[in-house]
Amino acid sequence: MDHFKQIRAFVNSATRGSLSAAAQVEAVTPAVIGRRLDALEARLGVKLLLRTTRRLSLSFEGQAFLEDCQRILNELANAEAAVSVGGIRASGHLKVSAPAGFGRRHVAPQVAAFMAANPDVSVRLDLSDRVVDLLNEGVDCAVRIGELADSSLASSKLGEMRRVVVASPDYLARHGVPLTPADLSAHNCLSLDQQRGWALREALAGDVVHRKVGGAFECNDGAVLHEWALAGKGLAWRSVWEVGDDLRSGRLRSVLDEYAAPPVGIYAVFPQRRHLPLRVRLFIDQIKSTFGDPLYWGLEC
């Protein structure tokens, strides 16, 4: 007898409370459902359902088995929906959180594309540089960059991103190109307020250290530092996601690339659930496909 049919008979009987109700769902007779349950219990060697003439109740083993069976059936339905033409469509409300600058430039366009492909899904996108509490704030998925703190949340790596030291060609023509991290002491370095320092290798293939840099300007907004670097006011240490277009166009040049720290991860973080809603899974799949492609960034990250 088909093991899948046995599991469906068990789940339908347990959730609907009778063999008759399960039989109606599966368009068979109650006797067929009963035989499938008997075969399942015999195969497993445990009693799953306690049956009387009036009611069904789950045994201890049956309760645990039901949760696993429901998860498996749900994941199978999601898998079939994802590959079938005209299959089950994602619906409902999706709440997404992302860092402000990165989210504005890279997550918001992905949300727009996702909504176009899934018209039955509404989305709220919250852009904030604070670490949101997913569970208490009802967030389905948060995009985060860098090392993740230990938590009970689940995560999926979307891609990688590195930071580079950049300056305008005009600034480098006037002040020279730094060849080693030690040369930064002779340059005007545009710093993020309260930053630990610029993470660079101490020497070629050496350990990464946070090097304190000095300059005439500090700011708590990275976008301002980006603009000042474009204006030729100094060196800035920025993420490729922010300056990639400028590097490709030649408006900025990267320096000290051989001393750059290893890339950091871009992650989707979400609450651990037995049944991840289809809309959440599809959104994570979409941004993973995009952010995981180096061609999207235009540079090797």
Describe the structure.
The chain has 301 residues and is α/β, with parallel strands linked by helices. It is 42% helix and 22% strand. The chain is built from eleven helices and 14 strands. The chain has helices at residues 3-16, 19-26, 30-44, 60-83, 100-117, 134-137, 169-175, 222-230, 240-249, 278-291, 294-297; strands at 49-51, 56-58, 92-98, 121-127, 141-145, 154-161, 163-167, 189-192, 198-201, 208-211, 218-219, 235-239, 253-255, 264-270. The strands form four sheets. A five-stranded mixed beta sheet has the order 4-3-5-14-6, covered by helices on one side. A five-stranded mixed beta sheet has the order 11-8-12-7-13. A two-stranded antiparallel sheet has the order 1-2. Helix 1 (3-16) packs across helix 2 and helix 1 (3-16) packs across helix 4 (60-83). It is elongated.
What is the topology?
Blueprint: H1 3-16, H2 19-26, H3 30-44, E1 49-51, E2 56-58, H4 60-83, E3 92-98, H5 100-117, E4 121-127, H6 134-137, E5 141-145, E6 154-161, E7 163-167, H7 169-175, E8 189-192, E9 198-201, E10 208-211, E11 218-219, H8 222-230, E12 235-239, H9 240-249, E13 253-255, E14 264-270, H10 278-291, H11 294-297
Parallel strand pairs: 3-4, 3-5, 8-11, 8-12
Antiparallel strand pairs: 1-2, 5-14, 6-14, 7-12, 7-13, 9-10
Helix pairs in contact: 1-2, 1-3, 1-4, 2-3
Strand content: 15-25%
- Tell me the Rg in angstroms: 27 Å
Helix content: 40-55%
Largest sheet: 5 strands, mixed
Order of helices and strands: HHHEEHEHEHEEEHEEEEHEHEEHH
Secondary structure tally: strands: 14
- Taken from the alpha-carbon principal axes, the silhouette is elongated
User: What is the subunit organization of this protein?
Assistant: single chain
The helix-and-strand class reads alpha/beta
